[in-house]
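The methods section describes the discrete structure representation at length, but only in general terms. What matters is that the chain and its backbone geometry are given together, residue for residue. Nothing conveys this as quickly as seeing an actual entry. For illustration, here is how one protein appears when written out as sequence plus structure tokens:
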Amino acid sequence: MAFSLAIIIILGLTADYLFRKIKLPGLVGMLLVGVVVGPYVMGLLAPEMLKVSGDFRKIALVVILLRAGFELRRDVLHRVGRAAVIMSALPAIFEIAGIMWIAPLLLNISLLEAAILGAILAAVSPAVVVPLMIGFMDRGRGANKGIPTLILGASSLDDVFVIVVFTVLLGMYGGQSSHLALKLANIPISAGLGILLGIIPGYLLYRLFTAYDFRPPKRTLIVLGVSIMLTWIEKILEPTIPVAGLLGVMAIGFIILEKSESIAHIISQRLKKIWVFAEILLFVLVGAQVDIHVAWNAGVAGILVILCGLVCRSIGTYLSLFGTPFTPAEKLFCVVAYVPKATVQAAIGAVPLAAGVVSGDIILAVAVLSILVTAPIGAVGIAVLGEKILDHGEDSVYRFKELREKLDLPHVGERVREKRTSDIWKVIEEKELWLEPSDGITDRNGQRRRTPAISLRIWNPQSATTTASGITRFIRFTADSPQFQQEWEILYDW
């Protein structure tokens, strides 16, 4: 298993680097590495690794969904909430309907089997979509209209909706009595309970972190541990109470951000570092689940079914965006963002075959083929169109994130040492400021250019007699400031 991890890390990093060099998303390279080293091609991964790959993939998905939660702001959610709810169902309904029409003709399967296939194919992949949306949010792309936030929320609800529909259809095939309206009512119940399941521990964690001065790495590990526990609770409750655990994971980040932006920033930065490793595990192991021999059996007919479903899905996505302030180009980006398939298809593609569905082998073949076709194309399309279409305003939050990363500034709660005096200080406050120009410089629109700056308030605990006393200082940084490490040292400790 150790050798398998080494293969995943080395080849995954290499593929990520090479694909980025040719201006393609690194995750596409990692997916292809997984296909090649997986059990269906070269078989380089140990059986033990494949047995626990589901757990590894779930943990990696938890990491990226936590990061997504720490980027969700209430005002943005208010703007995109209605569209997110519609996008969580309407595109999937259109795709299922399209596949129910075309699949019996091309694949010679029954209408109910076509519906089951449509339910499997209709799920968008959070493993592909969420990291790309987080990347745009990190760089301030689409922030003005909240487009990445819309897609984050809608794609999570989309999976809940599709899996419920799949369960209903599979039950109908097996002759189980299931009331469709009752089953569909589980969708808002599942989403609501999932969000509630995340808000409660999120608030308790916020209170814990404000009451006790945990070091940043400990805070991050505690949040990660609680989030993984939510997915375990979801599995325990699954037979009796439907709970969307992944929505709960995002809710933890959201509530901490609402209560304390400084704590949220610190945890999010640590998660960003963990994601470097988690990303490799997630995409390589997703690729390892793909049996290209099975996909080959689907042939041209399978590709035509997938493409027909995508066309219908795209129509549904575009209709979902009526009434939004998005331009036609931005709506096109949302359509493309809803193309990738991977996670759900890899997870449930073989379930009909195991359940005794007559055309289960055909369903599995098309599901696997959908990953090979849509994941790379969708990822590339999102990356290319996102850079060209999504807004990037002059006063974007990204300007501060760019400044912070450029100067390698500490966050609230971290301790720093002044190299000149060797004094130890603690960062207790951070403010993002827009400095008005003094020279009257204007941009091409005639607006005065403002300069982003970050002001840090630091406190010397050695000078304090009580927690409310002691010396404090303010330090301001702009793009012209020297690197923080030139005069200071960040003390990373537990």
About this structure: The chain has a mean pLDDT of 82. Residues 67 and 261 are 13 Å apart (CA to CA). Residues 180-211 form the longest helix (32 residues).
